[in-house]
């Protein structure tokens, strides 16, 4: 199914220079980033206490190219009349993007996360949702081996990281490369950075009024997790809304993976990323 959606997306999507694309490996903070960027771009239309996020999942407000808009074979979505700037999401690697995106002046916000935390988050997500009914779930050890070997739905995670990392070096005005851990540690500064990057900086009046802090508080993991819309309901297929919110902690992998697994990951990162300038501390 994703193969057909990828073909349709690459063939039919027409980018606008004002588009904003949120990219990431799955379970790297995608849901959180959707909420943050939606709140940034829509702040002149919806005050925080009337935010559509109160009654809609972030995934229903910022849709994915391959998992939403182009998922149905043969269907071409009508995207021209979406509110500007249009905000999209994708887990596709950089080399698989539609050429119209690459050729446009649109902005990419890429979020990367400690791969060990990302793996554990993905593991629990798959355990909870069972995307393929009847399929045997791999053990944690088997799943980790597959993860390290690059047997993933969107390709090897190091290749994914490097694709957007290199794009950010070549075009820093078009690709913002964020660390999940930085957003957790200092959401206020990172929200301002994102707003500036997408061309919607906060005014002095907005900052004095505390709007940046309001967005940071409203879009905090615990706040989003405890909204009724995110505790109940189905996103699509078997995927439950609450499965997008487990813990969101930094370093939680230590409760699940052995020191030997962590050492294997460190060696893999050293082998794959040496010379790129990209450093991942785990």
From TrEMBL:
- Which GO molecular function entries does the Swiss-Prot or TrEMBL record give? sulfotransferase activity
Q: Which residues form a coiled coil?
A: none
Q: What class of enzyme is it?
A: transferase
Task: State the EC number(s).
Answer: 2.8.2.-
What domain of life is recorded for the organism?
A: Eukaryota
Which residues does UniProt assign to the signal peptide? Answer: none
InterPro entries listed in its UniProt record = P-loop_NTPase, Sulfotransferase_dom
Tell me the keywords, alphabetical order.
Transferase
Q: Where is the Sulfotransferase domain?
A: 17-276
Looking at the Swiss-Prot or TrEMBL record, what is one Pfam family this protein matches? Sulfotransfer_1
What family does the entry list? Belongs to the sulfotransferase 1 family.
Annotated protein name in UniProt:
Sulfotransferase
Organism phylogeny: Eukaryota, Viridiplantae, Streptophyta, Embryophyta, Tracheophyta
């Amino acid at each position: 199914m994703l193969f057909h959606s990828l073909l349709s997306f690459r063939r039919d999507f027409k980018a606008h220079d004002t588009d904003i694309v949120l990219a990431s490996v799955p379970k790297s903070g995608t849901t959180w980033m959707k909420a943050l960027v939606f709140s940034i771009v829509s702040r002149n239309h919806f005050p925080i206490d009337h935010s559509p996020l109160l009654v809609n999942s972030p995934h229903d407000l910022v849709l994915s190219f391959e998992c939403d808009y182009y998922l149905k074979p043969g269907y071409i979505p009508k995207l021209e009349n979406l509110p500007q700037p249009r905000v999209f999401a994708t887990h596709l690697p950089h080399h698989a993007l539609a050429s119209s995106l690459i050729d446009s002046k649109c902005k990419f916000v890429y979020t990367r996360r400690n791969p060990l935390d990302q793996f554990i988050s993905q593991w629990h997500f798959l355990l909870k949702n069972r995307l393929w009914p009847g399929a045997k779930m791999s053990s944690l050890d088997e799943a980790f081996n597959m993860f390290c070997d690059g047997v993933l739905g969107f390709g090897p995670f190091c290749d994914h990281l490097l694709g957007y990392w290199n794009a950010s070096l070549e075009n820093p005005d078009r690709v913002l490369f964020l660390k999940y851990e930085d957003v957790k540690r200092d959401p206020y500064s990172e929200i301002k950075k994102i707003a500036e990057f997408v061309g919607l900086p906060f005014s002095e009046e907005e900052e004095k009024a505390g709007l940046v802090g309001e967005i940071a508080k409203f879009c905090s993991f615990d706040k989003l997790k405890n909204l009724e819309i995110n505790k109940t309901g189905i996103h699509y297929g078997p995927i439950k809304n609450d499965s997008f919110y487990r813990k969101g902690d930094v370093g939680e992998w230590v409760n699940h993976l052995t020191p030997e697994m962590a050492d294997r990951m460190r060696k893999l990162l050293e082998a794959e990323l040496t010379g790129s300038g990209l450093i991942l501390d785990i």
